[in-house]
Amino acid sequence: MNARIETPDLMIYAMALEIENFNTVLHGVSSPLPVLAMSVARKTHAPDIAYISGAEGVDPEIDRIYPSSFDARLNRNAVAYFGLHEAFDLAQRGELDVMFLGAAQVDCNGNTNLSLIGDVERPKVQLPGGAASAFLMPITPKVVIWVTRHSNRVFVEEVDFVTGQGYNHRSEEHKANEIVVISNLAVMNFKNPERAMQIQYYHPGHTIEEIKENTGFDLRVAPDASETPAPTQDILDFIVPLKRKFWTGNSIRIKQNYPWRHTPVGKEFPQPLKKPLVMRT
Q1: Which whole-number Å values give the CA distances from 83 to 74, 136, 143, 205, in the listed order?
Q2: What are 181-215's pLDDT values in tens digits?
Q3: Which domains does the chain have, with CATH numbers?
Q4: The pTM is what?
Q5: Which of 127, 175, 240, 270 counts the most CB atoms within 10 A of its CB?
Q6: Where are the beta strands (DSSP E) in 67-134?
Q7: Contacts made by residues 217-226, CB under 8 angstroms, sequence distance 24+
């Protein structure tokens, strides 16, 4: 069967695979792709997750996503309401398993920046801030950082400001917790003795050399690095209608030099397009 697999769909599936059954999962603000990833996980390999919506609903039914992932309409048929402030206590007790967070900058140690670009005293850009990042990143067993544009401006040697702590700013106890970074080019982790970022999966249509060229530090490659698993047609059929409803009147720009056009799922991929794709209906 032919399928049009787009970069966001691959990112959503990669994020979903980071969730295990019976996990308790939370996402941050403005997180349309994580919302869809949780929905995919619940429909496939992890039906028993506890999904805490940013809008404070527990296990809601997601029939579409909205510009804000804190939109109260995302609480449709939720089984309970869970105040976002209670998520801090949940994490402190060790009962939050996975957290999805965004970042404007990520460095080789897994530090994230959502605070400012430039010098602290005279910043070039003031960013929205990390909200719960500083508290939740060190103590959550798995944090998944998602980035839609993999470039050497985003993946930097050292972040301009540490909003969320990577491995070089953690206690020995918290170094046992996991950080995964998913971009439009690859899936990366820190599973090596030095806790340095490494490529675990490279997205179909991209090469390790290309990923390294778009990274502002010496990005390692895991010994068992391989191609990112592609979603099946059934999963694509589930993702696309939900995504399409969100994209009506909205857009999210994801750099996608290698979209897959009418490609059999899991088969070889066609030549790259020349322009980035802006996803709209």
Answers
A1: 14, 16, 20, 42
A2: 999 999 999 999 999 999 999 999 999 999 999 99
A3: 2-276 (3.40.1080.10)
A4: 0.85
A5: 127
A6: 80-81, 98-102, 105-107, 112-113, 116-118, 123-126
A7: 217/107, 217/108, 217/155, 217/156, 217/157, 218/108, 219/108, 219/155, 219/188, 220/192, 220/196, 222/189, 222/191, 222/192, 222/198, 224/200, 225/198, 225/199, 225/200, 225/201, 226/201, 226/202
Q: How many angstroms separate the CA atoms of 150 and 54, rounded?
A: 25
Q: Please state, in angstroms and as integers, the Cα–Cα distance from residue 233 to each residue in 79, 103, 239, 244, 266, following that order.
A: 30, 30, 10, 16, 10
Partner residues linked to 100 by β-bridges: 27, 144
Dump pLDDT digits (tens) for 39-49: 999 999 999 99
Residue 172: count of CB within 10 angstroms of its CB: 6
- What the block records as the tokens of 181 is 């970074």
Q: How confident is the model at residue 99 (pLDDT cuts 50, 70, 90)?
A: very high
Among residues 204, 167, 157, the alpha carbon closest in space to that of 189 is found at 167
First to last CA, the chain: 23
- Residue 55's pLDDT band, with cuts at 50, 70 and 90, is confident
Q: Is the pLDDT reported for residue 271 higher than 50?
A: no
